[in-house]
Amino acid sequence: MTVKPIRVWLTPPGPNPWKVIFVLEELNIPYEIKSFAFAEVKKKPFIDINPNGRVPAIEDPNTNLTLWESGAIITYLVEQYDTAHKLGHTTLNEKHLVNQWLHFQTSGQGPYYGQMGWFNVLHEEKIPSAITRYKNEVLRVLTVLDGVLQGRDWLVGDKMTIADMSFVPWNDRLDDLLVQPLDETYDGLPHVRAWHERMAGRPAWMRTCAIRKGLMMEQGLLDATGMPEGYGSIQEYLADLKEGKVRG
After folding, report:
1. How do residues 177-203 score in pLDDT, each as one tens digit?
2. What sections of the chain are H helices per DSSP?
3. Calpha distance 155→129 (Å, rounded)
4. With contact defined as beta carbons under 8 Å apart, do 192 and 168 qualify?
5. pLDDT tens for the 248 residues of the chain, in order
6. Where does residue 37 rank: exposed (0-12), middle (13-18), buried (19+ CB within 10 A)?
7. How large is the greatest C-alpha to C-alpha distance in the chain, in angstroms?
8. Partners of residue 6 on adjacent β-strands
């Protein structure tokens, strides 16, 4: 049976959509991207797809399923399309361990890294206590991963799964989030660094990055911040977003 392309709704700057593209590329599942501006994320037609107004979301014409939340999407893709179990496990314990780590990524890594980016990079007022809190949380997450990865290549079993892959897009932004060299961030954390680099060197991730770069360029976005050219601060950008007069 021919698989029809899955439509992926995304705005290019954020990390979460790229979990989905990474999995689609790794599994060679046909897809098409509906890329749109961040200014439209809380407007129709996207809020008809995801009433929460967050990317990514997918529409799968093969099953007539519309789905949002990146963790739910990549779990679905593996269950529905990974018939060879390339990125998952079939045994009871391993299936639930993959789910455990995926929940840790969506509830731990993503929110803490996001807050780190906001307070350390985007927020107009520098609040030392907030920056310290979220930097410590980023390092705590990395330390947890480094300890678990000592003596093993992957989080669950002997192969890369969606549990591992889900961490890549945010860890790929560590230098931007912490505004410090990666060598400094990874000092004393060799296992998590090697794990990330194993995945970042995969052809599927490199294709994912190339797609993201192209979509960012189409919208005239600065890679590190997701703002269009011509803005000096996120506050200027948000003010223009509110008034519907974004530059670029």
Report:
1. 999 999 999 999 999 999 999 999 999
2. 17-27, 46-49, 70-81, 92-104, 110-117, 128-149, 162-165, 168-171, 174-178, 182-185, 190-200, 203-218, 234-243
3. 32
4. no
5. 799 999 999 999 999 999 999 999 999 999 999 999 999 999 999 999 999 999 999 999 999 999 999 999 999 999 999 999 999 999 999 999 999 999 999 999 999 999 999 999 888 889 999 999 999 999 999 999 999 999 999 999 999 999 999 999 999 999 989 999 999 999 999 999 999 999 999 999 999 999 999 999 999 887 666 666 665 555 566 666 566 666 65
6. middle
7. 57
8. 31
Instruction: Enumerate domains of the chain plus CATH numbers.
Output: 6-85+204-243 (3.40.30.10), 92-200 (1.20.1050.10)
Gap between the Cα atoms of 82 and 77, Å rounded: 7
Hey, what are 82's tokens? 């990974």
User: Cβ distance 165 to 26 under 8 Å?
Assistant: yes
Angle among Cα 98, 100, 105 to the nearest 5 degrees reads 95
C-alpha span between 225 and 178 (Å, rounded): 13
> Which amino acid is present at 120?
N
Distance of CA 102 to the CA centre of its chain: 12
Q: How many CB atoms lie within 10 A of CB 211?
A: 17
Residue among 154, 5, 199, 162 nearest 79 (CA): 162
Q: What pTM was estimated for this model as a whole? A: 0.91
Coil, strand or helix: which one is 18? helix
Handedness of CA 91, 96, 101, 103 (dihedral sign): positive
